[in-house]
Amino acid sequence: MKRARGRVNRGEKKRSEKRRRRDAGTEGGDGARGGDGTRGVRAAADGGGEGRHGDDAGDGDGLSTSYLASLDEGIKRVVKANRKRAREAQTLLKRALKVKDVKFFNRMLKDFGNEKQFGFAKETFERISRAGLAPNVYSYTNYLNAATRVGETTVMREIWKSMCDSGVEPNEVAYTVLVKGESQDGNIDRARSVVREMISVGVEPNQRTYATLLRNCVRYGDVDGATKCLETMRERDYAPDATACEYFIKTLCGELMVQRALAFVRDATRDGVEVTAQSHVAIATAASLIMPDNDVAVNACRDARAILEMDLANAEKNATGSRYADDEYDAQNDGTSTDAPSKSVQLFLRLRSQETNREIDAVEAYINNVPLSRRLEIADIASKGVESSPQVKIIADDEDIEPLIVDDVDDVRVEVCSGHGDWITRRAKQNPNVRWIGIEMRRNRVALTWMKSLRLGVEGNVRLVCGMAHDALSARVTPPASVSELYVNYPDPPEWVGSSQVLVDAAFLRDVHRVLKPGGHLICVTDDPAYAVRMCRELRKARALFAPAAADGKPFESGVPEDYGTSYFDSMWTLGNQRDRYCMRYVKREE
Ligand SMILES: C[S@@+](CC[C@H](N)C(=O)[O-])C[C@H]1O[C@@H](n2cnc3c(N)ncnc32)[C@H](O)[C@@H]1O
């Protein structure tokens, strides 16, 4: 009996040690060794969390993955899938060393990059030389793409340097990835100088290179940058295609430059370029606001509808095109595959068409239901531009900014990451006595939200801050104890498991705690189970500052309340028919 118990105990001890090592990320053969690969394995296996808390009761210092998974099927599923993915990645990594073919490594780099498994991509790249092989231009490009896709700009620049130092000549795809990395980081000038460099060394930029640059001009409201990009295209004898035209029109309309956009459409049509429904909608939105007494917006809505109908008829064709797949910008195939459009691209196309219809409806409702006298008043406000609006504050790096809430408002509610502004403007309409503040880093989204607030007549109770959440919630902008509720709806999940660029972290929670009134609430909603786990853990660590608002003390709720409101990303969730959404409501504790 005694001996049997002893054996069982040793077995249990071994298993629990194995579990502990797995949670700490020290197990797992080659794939688990070394640098970011290690973090990738551990964190991926843990569903994106830190995985250090072997405390399955969910008590003590933190919340374990298994405890959180036991509360929700979706989390359980994802944790399981991530562990499987991590095991498969390790198997592949081991195989690659035996196969000793750089093409095999390149394919892995491409897949890890596209799946945003940056830790594994790094590990793969490092193993190329360990296998006695030399990375070629495809290896570098795919690795570059992996870093760019997860927003690791510094690493991206290091990879670029190392490619050039090792004498590998970048091709147009590598250059385009670099353009993407620089411009998505807001360095449009730097991105343009990459384009110039390409040209000077005899590598011709392609439509994708220009589209990448132009897309980011939209995001940053950079009319000048977009104009220069089109000039370069013309100099190089490159006619802008439908996508390039759309980006240019959106950049103009974001700044309410309707006349310029109309002239551009005329020229594009004359040159036989297809003008997309989304381009017409951008014109409709802007024109409805600043040109209330003519037919420009009405005509643009009509044209947009006609094109959407045609698009619907050609849906299959559109789905197989790669026109809008830029975010999926593929690394190089190295002759190893051709990809069908990913599910996410198809979902994006459907969402895009749904949103376009919705925006047409909203513009038409505005034109038909709001009296002309009121629309003329709005036109007067709108024509001064988003930057001069007293509703909007733009936080630039080098500028002092006045505090946000200067007047006496009783109930101030903030949405961090307000995106396209659907949720906040609708909530503002429902609660006119509440002051709503949206914080959003992308300028075009702030401009759109501002336009929606004018259209809905909620400009009196909506304020917008264009900038990073951390700056907007800092002491110089938001006074302490001034906010009753702070919402974070569908924040971008960390780009990869080892990413340090994550919104809901300890510093963010300290900021939120400072700005909330006593008894104020923090509400976070996400459709990403791994991020839900990570947030719950951060909130648990910050338990001196926040307590779960749920009566049973549960760290999160599965699903969102019925009357919570909808947003662009919420529609994406609905359209994608996902099963999981998580809501974390916490109340501020007094320290
Ligand atoms: C996934 S979208 C969700 C937008 C919106 N809440 C919705 O549900 O449609 C996340 C948004 O957060 C913004 N964002 C991400 N990090 C941010 C930060 N640190 N500060 C301000 N905005 C941020 C992004 O630009 C993006 O518009």
Question: Which helices and strands occur, and which strands form pairs?
Answer:
Layout: H1 2-24, H2 35-45, H3 65-69, H4 73-99, H5 102-114, H6 118-130, H7 137-149, H8 153-165, H9 172-184, H10 188-200, H11 207-219, H12 223-235, H13 242-254, H14 258-270, H15 277-290, H16 296-313, H17 315-320, H18 343-369, H19 372-382, E1 392-394, E2 412-416, H20 422-430, E3 435-440, H21 443-455, E4 462-466, H22 469-472, E5 483-489, H23 506-515, E6 516-526, H24 529-541, E7 546-548, E8 557-558, H25 568-575, E9 582-588
Parallel strand pairs: 1-4, 2-3, 2-5, 3-4, 5-6
Antiparallel strand pairs: 6-9, 7-9, 8-9
The protein binds S-adenosylmethionine.
Account of the 3D structure:
- This protein is of the alpha/beta class.
- It is 56% helix and 8% strand.
- The chain contains 25 helices and nine strands.
- It has helices at 2-24, 35-45, 65-69, 73-99, 102-114, 118-130, 137-149, 153-165, 172-184, 188-200, 207-219, 223-235, 242-254, 258-270, 277-290, 296-313, 315-320, 343-369, 372-382, 422-430, 443-455, 469-472, 506-515, 529-541, 568-575, and strands at 392-394, 412-416, 435-440, 462-466, 483-489, 516-526, 546-548, 557-558, 582-588.
- Strands 1, 2, 3, 4, 5, 6, 7, 8 and 9 form a nine-stranded mixed sheet that branches.
- Strand 5, helix 23 (506-515) and strand 6 (516-526) form a beta-alpha-beta unit.
- The protein is globular, with a radius of gyration of 26 Å.
- The termini are far apart.
- 46% of the residues are buried.
- The model is unreliable at 1-60 and 320-339 (pLDDT under 50).
- Bound molecules: S-adenosylmethionine.
- S-adenosylmethionine (SAM) binds at residues 417-420, 423, 439-442, 445, 468-469, 489-492, 503, 567-570.
